[in-house]
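quick one, 265 residues, struct below
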Amino acid sequence: MKKTDLDYNHLHSRLLEEMNARHIRNELKTDTIALLVFGACENHGDHMPFGSDFIFPMELAKRIATKSKKKNIIILPAIPYGVSLHHNKFQMTMSLESHTLEIIIEDLFNSIVRNGIKRILVINGHDGNIAAIESAARVIKDKHSEVVIACLEAWWVLVGEITNNLFEVWNGLGHGGEAETSAMLAVRPDLVNMNNAPIQVIPKLSDNVRIYWKFDELTNTGATGAPRKATVHKGIQALKALENVLLKFIDDMDRTNWKYGLLLK
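---
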């Protein structure tokens, strides 16, 4: 069974795939926020589902739309494929080329803007997507300077930084590691098999200079970090921390009518 403490009875009014034309006519306003999730489909070890990178962010998006004071947030269908070339050695990796994802994102952003929405919030679930999201956002921002595009780029990094030593190993980091596994235990425990969680793997990498590795150079299991340290409690705490970040972001932006920087003057 899916683990959730939310009442989703009225969530259909936020999910674009479940809305009809009348819903859109009634809900679409000048201050509507379009919420997009970008994920991936790839091996996360023997204990985690291939869709982890969009399942968890989509749950987070639903919670934000449900809990926010702002009532006209529209959640677009999640994009379940990402740039996963660095995971290609692992079976059934579904990957887009970076330029393909950039075009997809630009097209989606253009569609949103064409419909009069000028506030876009992205929740990204996969590291390989970050460059493509930024590139597409820069292009759209150059064409439409009035549009605000914001992105939670790497929740798996942020959550370890804001939860005050919640995680025991490597600040929760890892692909299918302590934080990701905990997050999935919190939202879809039926898809996680802790009996199959691999042993801890902490790759030896430079702290200051980035190496563009292939994932099979870091692990033989499809997972890194310490998944056996994951718990439902840690996942719930991580989920709440991320909710608070995004809810506060929306509240803060609403207070300034989504103006920032020099535009506030």
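The mean pLDDT is 95.
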